[in-house]
Amino acid sequence: MPRRREPRPAPALELKTTRLAGIQVILNSAEHAALDTHLSTLFAATPDFFGGEAAVFECGRLPADAPSPDWAWLARELKSRGLNPFAVQNASAELAAAAQQAGLLILNDVAPAPAAIAAEPEPLPEPEAVPAPEPALSATAPTRIIDKPLRSGQRVYAAGGDIVVLAAVNPGAEVIADGSIHVYAPLKGRALAGARGDTSARIFTTHLEAELVSIAGVYRTFDAAPDAAVARKPAQIRLADASQIVIEPL
């Protein structure tokens, strides 16, 4: 009788292209050695295939008792290979807390304790942790106003309210708010509104040229320029049916 083949074990991680999120990095293992070996094999033939495309870690396949990956190391390894990981999704509370400490956003309902946020936009050696989505927002939080350009690597966050930016958000910079985001200047970096789950939050800008936009964890990257009706023009970004990004001219 022919010998029955044993099923081939799943690779430590897999890459999947998604319509809105760029690249999804599906984790099947949290073991450092397994991830390191597979990364070397996976990118051996195409080390320069990705050009800084945004990526999200998908944790839904990890066992419930899986140890936390070394998120900072894993993010650096993928970045060195042309991907730009910025968030995790479907993570347990323990995995999400560790990912937050490494500066990754949380795109599910797990809510680890928020880390401290810098008072002024300054160059950051390491990304800040951002609180995970929660359903409630503070209605009395003051609007945060930023009147200086944000450079690559800078990140500002408005806890519990809106943020108004009166200068350019340059490529590589991030603006994050629990409420809405208003950019009265070119928006060339990333804007993430409704960071704690407010689906009514919106993003407004007088010049749309963003790398990534997100509302309540629903996000869109721009491999090419936005539609001509809104590219480099005043625009607003909102959610339709709490699940679809809509970009409209102002």
Descriptive report:
The protein is mainly beta and about 250 residues long. It has 2 domains: about 1-115, Alpha-Beta Plaits (2-Layer Sandwich); about 130-250, Pectate Lyase C-like (3 Solenoid), CATH 2.160.20.70. Helix content is about 10%, strand content about 30%. The chain contains 3 helices and 16 strands. The radius of gyration is 19 Å and the shape is globular. Mean pLDDT is about 80; it is low at about 110-140.
Give a quick set of tags describing it:
250 residues, mainly beta, Alpha-Beta Plaits, 2 domains, 6-stranded mixed β-sheet, 5-stranded mixed β-sheet, 3 helices, 16 strands, 12% helix, globular
Task: Provide a compact summary of the structure.
This protein has 250 residues and is mainly beta. It has helices at 32-42, 71-80, 93-101, and strands spanning 13-18, 22-27, 53-58, 83-89, 105-106, 144-146, 155-158, 163-165, 174-177, 181-187, 190-193, 203-208, 212-215, 218-221, 235-240, 244-249.
